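Researcher: Watch the backbone:
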Amino acid sequence: MYQQEAIAHHPEADSFQFEGAFHTITQAVRGYKWVVLATVLMTTLLVGAYVWIWPPVFEAEVMVSVDSDKDVQRTAFYQGWNIFRKDGLTDEGVLITTPQVLREVVRRLNLRYDDVYHPFTRYAIHLWTQSWLGRNYREVKNWILGREPNPNAPTPEQIELFKVLSDLKAGISIHPVADSNIGVLAVRGSNQRVADIANTIMEVYLEQRRDRFTEEARHAHASLSEETAKTQAEIDALDKQIRKFRVDSGAVLLFEKDRGQIGQYLA
């Protein structure tokens, strides 16, 4: 049984009609012109306030050549001497942004809060804490709730340093180049010093990496020297026991070659 549709289907109505859409938009604007005007003004004011209050963002990149995990000879060497440590490429990427590296960068360049990149929410919190309303809010809250002095509380200088380090790390990103052993270190900042920051990060990291490997090799040499000394002491003790046994038993050493080799080793 054929059932007639409630609304007849018109294929020509499926295509988008610009004239009808424009007419609908025009009617909506005329009917809610004050809402549209207020929305445009509020959007313009918010964008203008963001551009005026939030600092600009600059970015600098440094390309770094890293060691490949496919180095067969180096891998075999580290497998033969397990006392040494071979860092992976992922570990090196994490070590670039460690507090030791960033703290040294801040010290060398004398970075301040205005020199580093600020995420949106963190900078909004910073503006609140620095504003007249935020300062008085904390004072009133401490007066109402009471606040006992804390001897372990950080100093204002320590808080400022933490804010600089935290935002500096937030502005650093590391990503590898596909099908290569090249890594790209990208650093964002609030002014043109971002290029100096990127170069100094790599300089400090390479210096600390070299010092870390040098110290590791020094400890390895000391450990091997200690084991060599222990082995030498054990050989000397065994040689003394052999000599004492021969003297006490009157045995004759028939293996003159072994005696010569032991004498050369002890010499």
